[in-house]
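hey so i finally got around to running the thing on that chain from the lab meeting. sorry it took forever, my laptop kept dying and i had to restart like 3 times. anyway pasting the input first so we r on the same page abt which one it is
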Amino acid sequence: MRKALALALLFSLYFAGPLVATDAGPNAPTAASSIGGTKPWVNPANAQAQDGVFTVATSPFTDDVFTGQLTLTGFGFSIPSGSTINGVTVSILRKASLTTPSLVADSVVRLIKGGTVSGNDYAAGTWPLVLTARTYGSGTDLWGLALTPADVNASNFGVALTAEMISESQVVTGSVDVVTVTVSYSAAVTPTPSPTVTRTPTPTATVTPTPLPRLTVVIASSGSVNVNAGGSNIGQCDQTTTPCYYSISSGVAVILTASPAQGYGFSYWGGGGVCSGSNPVCSFAMPSAATGVNAVFLQQTPTPTRTPTLTPTVTPTATATRTITPTPLPLPVFTLNIAGYGSVGVTLGGVGVGGCDYPSTLCNYSVPNGTTVSLTPTGQPGWAFSAWSGTQCSGGGNCSFVMPASATDTTATFIVATPTPTRTPTPTPTRTPTPTVTATPTITPTPTVTPTPTTGPTVTPAPTPGPQLTINIVGHGSTELTYSGPHPPSWMGLPYVCDYTIQPCYYVTYPISGASVLVTPVAASGWAFSAWSGAQCSGGGTCQFYMPLSPTNTTATFIAVVATPTPTSTPTRTPTAIPTVGRKFDGMQSQKFDGVTVSKVNGKT
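ok and heres what got predicted. didnt touch it at all, straight out
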């Protein structure tokens, strides 16, 4: 049987003739929609034609959010049957209203095959201020997919785009004018009819894509970083494209190679992630969660070349030149600690290298001896900078010092901001005048006035951060978290939205007695919430529990909705409930708090 199939295949290839390469497109979509995300795209149909009319997504004033998935399909290809698809090129004409410190950047750029987001994620780079077209893929790039003419001709073939909007107390807007697709293929020229070989199609299993963990690379000063994953170069990040984002499968070997620009030198890896130290080459296995690195470059002072004069015995006029290369010494390390909720901006030699903030709590920097280090503390909402402590800084306000030759450290302490109380003025007593008597005057003694003490403001000590709550999301959906305690969880504004594109999400709370956590699942379009799992939640629907005194977690699982034929309904009789004598039965309600299920019947526990 195998020999017969092989002969038939060789026979068909022999008569199929040569392949002729050609391109179809660029074609624009005929259908567009926005799915899920924190900020959906407004008027997504505006991305179907290049006409200066945009589909836009706008961030809040202070939040860092992800847009909805801009889904573009129906590109109207008619690739001849039997052709070979060689590659797919996607062009996105887009711009951003701001670029620094607020910005818009690619989060997801993938193909849609058979109605499912599939293949490699080519998201990379920030969006420019000027309307610019960026291309992804090429005429020889299949995006990691096996594509046929039927796949690209289908109405559900297309492009999925998600953007990240980083807002630094500014409103930032991302705009897309049009998205086009070009398909490169080779059509077979058939000079002689070839026998028809009937093949039994292999059923294709529908696999729900799992978002890949993301690597973020940030360039400080002038230089670039080459990113190699699994033995292949997948991109290069420099000061014109930073920050850069790469979606890489967990466990894949990653090699980062830092190259300084002219007149600069590589200093160290920062960010508290997978890379550290001053070696320009960093190797690691991609973790299962998102991670990031900072590549720090500093301007270099040229090393002088010494030219000693040698006086040989035989030829006194000869002069030899010798270059002495000093052996580099390890750079001293500066350790910055954070106590409480706040952040510290760090500048080394006049070059900003990012900052250290809660929940990192401890950041290390390799700094050349003699470099000026400047620190700027900023409290999070509801918190205020208190004081410096440690080796280098003291008191309040900004701190600046010169890096010594050995390791050193300092700590920035933040406390809860307490409003200044209104002082009650001390009342002025009324003195009784001395009365005049015709006879011998009697003098009324002057009363003794006791001043009312003034009470100063009470300083509330900073509460100690409590345990961490981790929320995981399986499938396409999100969760909204509310918290009834006096100190809400950190780093996000109410309601706390955790989306499947950024999960897992972490929340640091305070174990206040009586405070409760309420988590509500929200399914993406075409998906449905299935069930809770983990330490705190189970079953379906909204989950409420009291925050324990130790770290805990829960997982929300969403499943794809599959359309099924509606069965013919058979009328059923509803049994009549027989109430208990003397009490009307209204039903039972159950709710789980901190692992304990409480049931109520007729409103009584």
